[in-house]
Amino acid sequence: GGGYVSVTTVPPNLVFATANGTTLIRSSDDGLTWTAVSWGGGAVLARSADHLVALSTTNSAPNVLMRSVDQGLNWTRTAQPQSSDYFDCIALSQNGLLFAGAEDGDTGTGIFRSTNYGDSWQYLAFGGHNNYVFSISVMPNGHLFIDEGGYQNRSTDNGLSWSDIAYGDGAIGNAIGDLFLQNYRSTDDGNTWMNFSSGLPAGITVGPMAIDSSGRLFGGANGRVFRSVTSTNLSVRSARSLSDRSTLINSPNPFTRSTTIHFTLPSAEYVTLKVYDAEGREVSRLASGEMGAGEHDVAFERDALPAGVYFYRITAGGMSQTGAMVIAD
After folding, report:
1. Under a CB-based contact definition with an 8 Å cutoff, are residues 256 and 293 in contact?
2. Contact, 260 vs 250, CB < 8 A?
3. CA contacts within 13 A on the Cβ side of 36
4. Rounded CA gap, 127 and 92, in Å?
5. Phi, then psi, of 290 in degrees rounded to 5
6. How far apart are CA 191 and CA 166, in angstroms?
7. What is the pLDDT of residues 68-94, one digit of tens each?
């Protein structure tokens, strides 16, 4: 049947989903098969590296916050931000900040923040367009996005101040910092957007979305869950590439100890070159400064990083490209 679907992914292959605020279901095979979560009830989920937090959205148990530290197998109840407010969205940053959006109540519209996974809360005043907050997303760069009835707002200081950036429902970010909002994608922190709906059935507008550790996008619409065919982390936007003639590569790939990243600059630019893990955390900054036009080689040493997939992103003159590399044992 049709209806609202909320999806959350947990690396390496866990997916959680709920439709119309009913039973929360869990998949351990990347969405192929599903089982109901033991405590039942619909929920909106948020995750960090080692915590899951679920906010119940059922009429029988509104505002119930549950926490799991074992990938959703077992759950314990946490503190409620404020009894007189109604909350229907939460988000977790990778550094453990938990945010909850207030619909209305004694404090009015606002965001609550917890530094201890819901044991205690701080109220952050928010003067928006409406008296409710539909969704909250925390991007890999730490920027916070909220949807207040179609208006997208961005905070770069953990919710202390906000600015309008777009109109739409529920932004989400991938490991390289690209944003996805319904059927659109932004590569510049939400300042501009391009259509990203190729392959979707006609007339489908994807609602709440999630991204797994490989960069594949999951989205809910009309009671169904859609998944992107390829990783969004590896797409190179030709309109924003550094040079039509350039190739961003690293060699060797895979590698065990070190590799060399090669790129071409069409003109002298201020360049940053960073490496991220599959969760979007920055693990190395290889370059940050002026570079001349032409070809460049930058060495990257593995050091103590574990084996796995990593992404490197070069930004120069407001444009960027991303590549992937594999560290092997």
Report:
1. no
2. yes
3. 8
4. 22
5. -75, 140
6. 8
7. 887 777 777 877 655 555 666 788 776
